[in-house]
């Protein structure tokens, strides 16, 4: 499945969630936006942290989403690869194997 399809699935999940639990969904999305927005840490740093955790937790959708957000925030491929090694230190080799998902997403999203 390509990155665009993964991102579409994320939208599908939130569309369903909004229909079933609109207030809860809006609170969650507001919390996420506030947390990942500008603060003591810049957005680029926060997205690299989120990417590292996504790799460590092995969530394909999260990896794709935060890869896209990293690219939007101006992260380089080098910075994202370095981030993946931090995930590997904390979560082991399975986190590093998820770099394939991230690399595919980078390739697909850069082509747009």
Notes on the protein architecture:
- The chain has 112 residues and is an all-alpha fold.
- The protein is 83% helix and 0% strand.
- The chain has 7 helices and no strands.
- The protein has helices spanning 3-20, 22-36, 43-57, 60-72, 77-91, 93-97, 99-110.
- The two termini are 16 Å apart.
- The mean pLDDT is 95.
Question: SSE layout and pairings?
Answer:
Elements: H1 3-20, H2 22-36, H3 43-57, H4 60-72, H5 77-91, H6 93-97, H7 99-110
Helix pairs in contact: 1-2, 1-4, 3-4, 3-5, 4-7
State the main characteristics:
7 helices; single chain; 112 residues
Q: How would you concisely characterize the structure shown here?
A:
The chain has 112 residues and is mostly helical.
Number of strands: 0
What share of residues is helical? over 70%
Unreliable stretches covering 5 or more consecutive residues = none
Distance between the termini: 16 Å
DSSP summary: helix tally: 7
* Strand fraction: under 5%
Radius of gyration: 14 Å
Question: How do the SSEs run, as a string of H and E?
Answer: HHHHHHH
Overall mean pLDDT: 95
What overall form do the CA principal axes indicate?
globular
Category by helix and strand content? mainly alpha
Largest sheet: none
């Amino acid at each position: 499945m390509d990155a665009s399809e993964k991102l579409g699935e994320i939208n599908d999940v939130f569309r369903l969630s909004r229909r079933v639990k609109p207030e809860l969904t809006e609170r969650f999305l507001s919390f996420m936006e506030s947390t990942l927005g500008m603060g003591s840490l810049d957005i680029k740093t926060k997205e690299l942290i989120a990417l590292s955790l996504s790799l460590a937790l092995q969530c394909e959708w999260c990896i794709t989403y935060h890869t896209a957000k990293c690219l939007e925030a101006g992260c380089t491929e080098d910075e994202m690869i370095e981030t993946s090694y931090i995930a590997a230190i904390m979560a082991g080799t399975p986190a590093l194997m998820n770099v394939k998902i991230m690399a595919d997403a980078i390739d697909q999203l850069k082509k747009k």
